[in-house]
Design brief:
The protein is of the alpha+beta class. Helix content is about 45%, strand content about 20%. It folds into two domains: about 15-55 and about 160-335, no CATH class; about 65-130, no CATH class. Helix 1 crosses helix 9 (about 200-210).
Length: about 325
């Protein structure tokens, strides 16, 4: 190693040591802020999921963004109000979602060999466009509702997005078959507690970055490890932020096709700007006599893990349930 490279390495090592000391010194403060964020701003000082008009929040986001379903060599994209079929970079077909008739969907499906996803799923989504009926409940009631109903797995699949994760990886991490999404939801709690922790050091570094040096240097990246699902599953203590817990949980729920699940689900992320927090939304699509309904629920792996990290489960519970008075939402994303 040249002297210049050795000097650079020493500087980098000193920088990381300094940041680690800063992070360690402020971890207790960050923990206090994190608990403050968990407990305040939902009742007397704010609102919460139980009080909010969630339909008004979720409906504008329901078709916004890009969702994708890969079928053989083709990709079905749900892109805002457009359905697009692509093969590589070639656009084979593009239709406005509200205008796709059942006959047109059947023709597209047959022409491109899309295994019934367009024929069975797109007319359902077209009927929901601009007229979505949502139901919100805790996660246990949600799964009971989906299993007892008539889910449209093709429509659920078309509403998914995210990185593909091996079903074997998810099963090993959560101790649950990805075909049983309720078991995965509950199994992820132990998986995250075993393999991760809430990254209080990175949180503290961010507090210094934002409130002490006012963005003069980027401190958070020095504390961030590899947070890809496979890396987290192979680790013994990766530090995660709330958005990373939420994203990994959505990937786990999407690990097998919706058609293979006992209760077909799609996932998304809920944003709470008041508390700088992100957690997980889960939904499905059910066929009923008077049309279709989209049941939804919410879970929070940050709280489930952080409460355990801080020894607060006896006071605050396990922390998984998020459809309660200790969560609020200011935005939601499904893409």
């Amino acid at each position: 190693m040249s002297n210049e490279r050795a000097d650079d390495a020493d500087v980098d090592l000193d920088r990381r040591r300094t940041l680690k000391l800063l992070g360690g010194g402020l971890t207790a403060t960050a923990a206090g802020v994190a608990v403050d964020n968990v407990l305040l701003g939902y009742e007397l000082l704010g609102t919460n999921l139980k009080k909010q008009d969630l339909t008004a929040l979720v409906e504008p986001a329901f078709f916004r963004g890009v969702r994708r379903t890969d079928v053989r060599d083709n990709r079905v994209l749900l892109w805002d109000e457009t359905v697009r079929i692509q093969r590589g970079q070639q656009v084979l077909a593009s239709r406005d979602l509200p205008e796709v008739s059942a006959a047109a969907a059947t023709g597209i499906d047959a022409e491109y060999g899309l295994d019934g996803y367009v024929e069975s799923g797109v007319p359902v989504l077209a009927s929901l466009y601009g007229d979505v009926r949502f139901e919100f409940s805790n996660y246990g009631s949600f799964f009971d509702r989906v299993r007892a109903g008539d889910p449209v797995s093709e429509a659920v699949e078309l509403l998914r997005s995210g990185v593909a994760v091996s079903p074997d990886t998810v099963e090993g991490f959560a101790g649950a078959d990805p075909a049983d999404p309720e078991a995965v939801v509950e199994g992820l709690v132990d998986g995250f507690r075993e393999h991760t922790h809430y990254d209080l050091d990175r949180y503290a570094a961010g507090s210094v970055q934002d409130n002490v040096i006012f963005g003069a240097a980027a401190l958070r990246p020095s504390f961030r490890g590899d947070v890809a699902f496979e890396s987290v599953a192979a680790s013994e203590g990766t530090g995660l932020f709330c958005n990373e817990f939420a994203n990994r949980s959505v990937e786990a729920l999407h690990a097998v096709p919706a058609r293979e699940q006992t209760a077909p689900v799609f996932g998304g992320t809920v944003h709470d700007r008041r508390h700088k927090h992100v957690y997980t939304a889960i939904g499905s699509v059910l066929r009923e006599d008077d049309g279709y309904v989209v049941p939804m629920t919410f879970v929070d792996y940050t709280h489930a893990t952080l409460y355990d990290d801080l020894g607060l489960t006896g006071l605050l519970g396990e922390g998984l349930e998020a459809y309660n008075r200790r969560h609020m939402a200011t935005g939601i994303s499904f893409s």
